[in-house]
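From the shared-data thread, chain only:
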Amino acid sequence: ANWELLIAPRDAERRLRIPEEWSGDGVIALVRDVSLLKHLRRRGMPTVNISGMFHNARWLGHVATDNFARARLAYEHFSSLRVAHFATYCPSLRREADLRGEEFVRYVHSRGYPCEVLVSEADAARTERSSDRQRIAAKLSILPKPVGVFVSDPYPARELVETCQSHGVDVPGEVLVLSGDEDDLLCNLILPSVSSIELASHRIGWEACKILDSMVRTGTPPSQPQLLAPLGICARRSTDHNAIGDSCMESVQRYIQQHATGQLQIRDLVRVAGMSRRSMELRFREVFGRSPAEEIRRVRVEK
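Structure, as tokens:
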């Protein structure tokens, strides 16, 4: 078979669309909005949807991650760390965030625990980002600790870690953050790095190809969506209780986060650490895998 990869193809009005001149036999698509769904319906090609949305559209084939299995895996990860307080942060504009967050809330409730829903007003009301972060941080500060926060995907998970750092909320000491999806780059662009759930992406692609081949030959989609369980947890520092052992270096790292955009000098960090410069630099590198100077530069670029 001949395959063509189209990455976010758009028409003159910037809408996600299959190019009019394209005349393939079938499509595998990540369908996340009604406009694209209607467009694919009009094109009349056999189509397999690999998002977690629109599973009631029976004319499509569906292969996606099982949100129930994802929620259970997240809960079990937190529970293995002796966490008994839970929350979700799933901004509604983050693609399938609502579905993922709602499933996690349901699963936590089924285990007999409450689950706080942290709502980002910036999504719906275009609230100033800084004030929205202050409100989220204030809400986190009054929750019982430690609290495990399930976040829909890596981008808002990274935002949440940044919010905690800038408002003095300790990750993972007080708040443990787990992303519902994996992106190695985004999850490692911040310290502490973000733990995530690894999806069965290769198998999703393989099964989607099999279903599309069947639909092209028979003209009939499967009667039910095919839902695949995630592969497991990519454990990183944001849910690692053992990573809290060096509170001195955690304090240095938080100080960098709070003061990197000013005239921060290494001697300021030596004062915070209460040890010699060489000892502080060696210990910081041992804990975080980079020097204090490298961390200052990284944070300045990020901010």
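The mean pLDDT is 88.
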